[in-house]
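Most newcomers find our protein records easier to grasp once they have seen one. A record pairs a protein's sequence with a compact description of its fold. An example says more than a description, so a record of this kind follows:
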Amino acid sequence: MAYSEQDKRRIFTEICKHVSKGQSINKTFKSGVMEINQDTFFDWLGKSKEFSEIYTCACEERATGEFEEMREIAFNIEDCYYIDKDGIKRVDNGMVNLKRIQEDVIKFRVARMHPKKYGDKIQVDNTNSDGSFERQGLLANCSPKALEQIKSIIEQENDIQ
């Protein structure tokens, strides 16, 4: 079926609304309410820079939503307690572990969906403004001779192992 540009934009935007609210593409199309199939969606996505940008924004919104969900899980601690048979409030270790697993799964997913914002990669730049390398930490004040001695000791240890 041939769609006008206006219809394509409307359909594509509707699908992206589902994505931005946390639904996967697979689940969106399995619901059966979409006017197009998944192949058509990805075909349109690949052919249009505008659609690509819309989809990217929807995915970022989904990642942000999941991050917020992770915060809600972390800070809602009331369900981590129970009252035992003697009426004493106790920690439900099973629920604590369940929350930890839920947070780990969300953290993993969010880091993959939007790595620049939620990823774990940390990059340290030790160069000066002139481009030269700046030594930092324990060995920052060591002379070149001392650094060579340390290097040789480490190499000897590696050879022994």
